[in-house]
Amino acid sequence: KTNVDKVMNGYQDNGSATYLGEEEGFLTVMGGDGMDNAYDHKDHRYSYGEYYNGAGITRMFNNIQQGGIGGGISESGAWVTPLDLDVVDPEIMYVGMKNVWKGVNIKSNNVSWKKVSNFNDGSNASVIEQSEADANVYYIAKYNTKLYRSDNLLSDDPTWTDISVFVPASGIISDIETHPENPDVVYITINSRVYRSEDKGVN
Q1: 86-96 pLDDT tens trace
Q2: Whole-number mean pLDDT of the chain?
Q3: Distances (CA, A) of 127 to 44, 88, 111, 188
Q4: 197 beta partners
Q5: Burial level of 97, CB count in 10 A (0-12/13-18/19+)?
Q6: What SS3 string covers 37-80?
Q7: Separation between Cα atoms, residue 162 and residue 171, nearest integer Å
Q8: How confident is the model over 156-172, as pLDDT tens digits?
Q9: DSSP 120
Q10: Are 162 and 117 contacting, i.e. CB atoms less than 8 angstroms apart?
Q11: Residue 138 to residues 2, 126, 148, 158, 183: CA-CA distances in angstroms?
Q12: Residue-wise pLDDT tens digits, 130-147
């Protein structure tokens, strides 16, 4: 958010690239199979990318790779594994494998990872989303059509509620978006349709 012109995209077989401006266009910053990525919302010099199944999560500084930071995650994820940075503290990263993994000190050479859920259903995450209005509120949707929410993500041992029964349509949730000011409002997309809840996914 410190530089609205910064964009980074994963192009599967064609790596990942970041946008440098109208004159310079896109610069390839990771080769191989580029997948999900993230920009530091307080310091745009830092960015992050990954390869398929959540492998090779990499930190970049000024578009130059500083090495992998995903060591310590003991699960694999979906072909495109979702990752994002904490909405308050960009030194924290969340990755949706079969569970939610939390990495701290991700700008350092001493990154520490912890599994902060225990779903035990064997299904990969399709989408993860943290509320901008309340950083404790977090959602994970899975390819088995399950949807879970935590209301205490920032605690030492977050708890999760299965809210799948309230999902208004059948199918895989392809996106989740929270309201920037109201933590009760959340949107999901299923089969090209958008659904809105005003009580954190219950109705």
Answers
A1: 999 999 999 99
A2: 95
A3: 23, 19, 23, 10
A4: 186
A5: buried
A6: EEECCCCCCEEEECCHHHCCCEEEECCEEEEECCCCCCCCCCCC
A7: 16
A8: 999 999 999 999 999 99
A9: -
A10: no
A11: 24, 14, 8, 10, 10
A12: 999 999 999 999 999 999
Round to the nearest angstrom and report the end-to-end CA distance of the chain: 32
At 195, list the tokens: 């659904």
Q: Are 101 and 114 in contact (CB under 8 A)?
A: yes
Instruction: Give burial (CB, 10 Å; 0-12/13-18/19+) of 9.
Output: middle
Please give the C-alpha separations between residue 194 and each of 39, 45, 89, 135, 190, in angstroms, as whole numbers.
26, 34, 29, 23, 7
Cβ-based burial of 203 (10 A; exposed 0-12, middle 13-18, buried ≥19): exposed
Using the predicted structure, report yes or no on whether residue 1 has a pLDDT greater than 70: no
Give buried/exposed letters for 151-160 (b at 16+ CB in 10 A, else e).
bebbeeebeb
- Number of neighbours of residue 138 by Cβ within 10 angstroms: 28
- In this structure, what token pair is assigned to residue 45? 């010099």
Question: Which strand ranges, in their side-by-side order, compose the sheet holding 46-49?
Answer: 37-39, 46-49, 58-61, 64-68
In this prediction the pTM is 0.94
Q: What is the side-by-side order of every strand in the sheet holding 26-30?
A: 8-10, 16-19, 26-30
Average pLDDT value for residue range 101-115: 97
* Both tokens assigned to 103: 């990495």
Q: Which two tokens stand for residue 142?
A: 């899975």
